[in-house]
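Let's sit down with a protein and look at its sequence and fold side by side. We need material for that, and I hope you will provide a protein of your own picking. Once you have written the record down, we can walk along the chain together.

***
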Amino acid sequence: MNFNTLEFLLFLPAVLALHWALPHRLRWALLLASSWLFYFWWEPMAGLLLVAVTAATWLCGLGAAREKPPAVRRACLAMALGACLGCLGVFKYAGFFAGLIPGGPTWRLLLPVGISFYTFQALSYVLDVYRGRTAPEGHFGYYALFISFFPQLVAGPIERSGRLLPQLRRERTLSREQLSAGGWLLLTGYFKKAAIADGLAPLVDAVYAAPGQAGGPEIIAATALFGLQIYCDFSGYSDIARGAAGLLGVELMENFQAPYAARSIREFWRRWHISLTAWFTDYVYIPLGGSRRGLPRRCFNIMAVFLLSGLWHGADWTFVAWGGIHGIYQVCGVLAARRTGGRGPQGRGTGLLRCAATFSLVTFAWLFFRAQSMADAWLLLSRLGTGWGAAQWPLLSMARQLPFVLPALACLHFLHRLPSRPPAPLGPRVLTVSALLLCIALGWWTSLSGGGGNAFIYFQF
C-alpha cells in the first residue's frame, strides 16, 4: 500500500479511529494486524518473508542475551546475520553477483519492497542485544510490531529497538498538540511529494531516458533537479511516516535536516538519511576501527562504509560508483582537515560558496545514482561539453514544464522557513493549509493526467 493512494487515505483514518477507541492492552494487536495488512497489500509472498525474518530474528535475540552461554550467543548472532544478510543476498544481490561470473546467469528475483530497511532494523536489534545495549523483547507481538510498524516499514527511518519499542509498549494519549503536529507533517510530506517531486520527475526522466540526445545544459539541469526531486520524494516520505506515527502517539526520528544547506560533504551526511548514516557508523565504521587506528585505516574504513552504502542502495555498479565518489569526498575532507588543523575560511560569503561547492559535488555524484547503467553515466559525462549553443537551450519540453515547477520550488523555500508546527493564528493557519492542499491536489492531478507513476523512489531499495 502506497502512502499516496486512495487506499491509504482510507486506511489511515480507519486505523487511527480504531486505535484510539481500543484499550491500551489491545492496541499492539491492531497495529500489528494493520501493519501486516499494509505490507501484504503489495505481495503476499513478500509478506511471508517479512514474517519469517521477524520470527527468526526474535528467536535469535532471545538466544543472544547476555545470560546465555557464549557459544549459544555467538550461534544466535551468526544465525541472525545469516537470516538478514542472506535474504538481502538472495533477493537483492544474487543476480548482480551472478552477472560478475563470466558466462554466469543474468537473472534477478523480484525485490520485496522495503527489505533493505526492515532487515537492517532487525539486525541492529540482535546486535544490540548481543552487545548488552538492550534487553531482549520477550513478547513476540511487540517485537513484530517494532519490525513491521507501517509508517516506517517500507522506507524508514531505520529505528533502534531502544527508542521505538518503549514507545510501542507504553500507554499513549493523543493531545491537541500531537494532532496538530502530526497533521502538519502529513501535509508538508504530501506537498513535497505530490507538488514538487512528482512535478520534477518528467524533466529528469526526459534527459535520463535518452542520454545520447541530451546536451550539457540539459544534463546539468536535469541532474540538479534530480537532487531536488529525490530530496523532496524521500524527505516527503519521512514526513508522512513521522506524521502518521505521531497521530498514533509514536515519535519517529527526524531523517533529514536541510541537507542542501550543508557546507561540507561530511556535514551533508549528518543531515541526509540520518538513520542510515547512524546505522553504518555504529555497526560498520566503529567495529572496523573507526578513526582509532591511524590515518590509513581511517581512510580505508570510510571507503568501505561508503562502498557498502552505495551497494545497499541498489545492486548495480552505478550505486557502487555513487558510494565510492562520496567515499573519496570524505577521505579528501579528512586529509584536508588534517593539513589545515580543521580550520577553514570563515564569513557569510565564504559559507555561501561552501554550500554551493557542496551542492555541486553532491549533484555530480547524483548523475551516477540516477543513470540507468554505467554506460549511460559515461555517455552523459561525455556529452557535458555539447549543446551549449543558444538555440539548443533549454529543451522545449523542459521550458513548458518550468512554469509549473518554479512556483513549487518557491513554495518549498518558504516551507523550510516555516516552523515545524502549523502557524498559531487562525488566519495564517487556514491560508497556509489551504495553499498546501491546493498544491497537493494540482500535483496529483498533473501526475495522474500525464500518466506518470508516483511511487516513492526509495521503494526500490
